[in-house]
Amino acid sequence: MALHPVVESVTKRIIERSRPSRGAYLAHLDAARIEGPQRGALSCTNLAHGFAAFPANDKLMLKQVKKPSVAIVSAYNDMLSAHQPFEHFPAIIKDAVRDVGAVAQFAGGVPAMCDGVTQGQPGMELSLFSRDAIAMATAIALSHNMFDSAVYLGVCDKIVPGLLIGALHFGHLPAVFVPAGPMTTGMSNKEKARIRQLYAQGKATRDELLECESQSYHGAGTCTFYGTANSNQMLMEIMGLHMPGAAFITPGTALRDGLTRAAAQRAVAISQQGGSYTPVGQIVDEKCIVNAVVGLLATGGSTNHTLHLVAIAKAAGIVIDWDDFNELSGIVPMLTRIYPNGDADVNHFQAAGGPGFVIRELLDAGLLHDDVTTILGKGLRAHCAEPFLDGEKAIWKELPAQSGDDSVLRPVAQPFAQDGGMILVKGNLGRAVMKISAVKEQHRVVEAPALTFNSQEDFMHAYTAGKLDRDFVAVIRFQGPRANGMPELHALTPALANLQDAGRHVALVTDGRMSGASGKVPAAIHVSPEILAGGPLGLVRDGDIIRLDATTGTLEALVPAAVWAARSQATADLSSSHIGMGRELFTMFRNAISEAEKGATTFPLPSPIPTTVPLHDAADIGDTVPGSDEDFLIKNPK
């Protein structure tokens, strides 16, 4: 099937737009690579420190500087259900790597916070910043220059984007991403949503709500709804950074362990010494990024990726924006119905055909680039496969021709919708993202008076006091990354849903985030630029008529131009969001972060390498490096 003309034109536009920064990035990759194992650039002292505590056989292998060394970078902690299984993965990986004549070292851990735990709490104001902190921690883990490839253990919201951003800053190293898989299915999403709304109405007790949540989030593995965490996993599949079909295999199973062993051994195979050198910076190119956007849209994935994919692309020297998402959304059909866009969870999605089915359908329809490089080599079609076990070894078989459940997963010829359900809205209030895949047609246009709030807590106080039984557009402002770290505003969803169910015409406009759990209420989110970057959301006053129209992509305050121009920006005391729960440590992030449409990042696009500054000392092992222990002893003999 020929490539769809819109996919082709958007890709060409991105390639042209990115030419200077992508060229600089690829030059960085070439400069960082050396012939032979990367540890060959280290002095004897450096290298001895790097393997001092290792078992004898592994130490001998590292001494010889012949075989590849694989870094393990993990987001393990045992509070996060999705990351708790990673406790056992390093041992599996080390054994699997030894079996193919190489060595693996646990290079470092990265922080992993759970948005589910911090939701509505002060800690949520660190959440978005944690992505760039994770990227920095990844860089620290790899900074020892001991490694020839890496496996990255991560699943959830900011963690996988942070790991990938960090990996791309070491883009000369091959990378394989290893998921832990989702927890088994608990309480149905429909029943969970019903009890949450009852609690918001005061018709369910806290004990009843806690029992509901405990039955929903009940064991090891990722939450099973299709939020940011599981969107991450879909993207790693379609970007070719997972072993095929690895995303949604539950933890603690033989197949899960088999896939982890296969991933570890693939990391060896694609190292420079493994014979199929495939650096991650070459895999993540413009076509790969377009494929990721298409996959996100086709599955109704998290709106958080309108930030994260921009940031991931930027790390690889690629420039994308919300116009690219919007144009692709117009031609990418919706192939899945997974909660919050349907009743099924990701386990149902996997049983119906999973990521491989989606990739095959999109390839056959000309909506994806097949001519990309993945961890398996050339061509995305190799990832249209389903994993099975042969003994303890993972093997792959062809997917069934038909979906296992067309209420969850459909072919391109019979989609749930003809578009991707994620649009750009814009006007005199700025530019914003709107996810409409779960918004019914009758709710896609709202024109109503504005009610302004400076926090979700202010909104909830008004709601519980019975002051919001009317038609209105809630303008939740000062929620952008510079203001308070751009926390997710999930507390608003049940309240707004109740008002909508009661017949009120309501909508949300905010410079904050709603994530993959945004649902049936129309919401223009990530309004960019935010108020602290001069954005016009601060000009809105209570009573202004706001028009949010998903059919025309309109986000307007219907205020006379002269009145609008005469207004000054609203102000707010944000000091309470800058101190406590570690928030004062992130002042530099708030001061340095880019606007939402540019990825809300703290790092720049790649720039050309200064010709006078080498990236590393290419000395052979045994050379005396200035400032090293050997150099000190030569200059200061006993």
Could you list some keywords that capture this structure?
single chain, 638 residues, alpha/beta, Glucose Oxidase, domain 1, eight-stranded mixed sheet, four-stranded parallel sheet, 23 helices, 13% strand, globular, disordered C terminus
Give a verbal description of the structure.
This protein is α/β, with parallel strands linked by helices. It has three domains: 360 residues, no CATH class; 34 residues, no CATH class; 155 residues, Glucose Oxidase, domain 1 (3-Layer(bba) Sandwich), CATH 3.50.30. It is built from 23 helices and 16 strands. Strands 9-10-14-13-12-11-15-16 form an eight-stranded mixed sheet. Strands 2-1-3-4 form a four-stranded parallel sheet, with helices on both faces. A hairpin with a 2-residue loop joins strand 9 and strand 10. Helix 8 runs antiparallel to helix 9 and helix 8 crosses helix 20. The radius of gyration is 25 Å and the shape is globular. The protein starts with a helix and ends with a helix. The C terminus is likely disordered. Catalyzes the dehydration of 6-phospho-D-gluconate to 2-dehydro-3-deoxy-6-phospho-D-gluconate. It comes from Massilia atriviolacea. Belongs to the IlvD/Edd family.
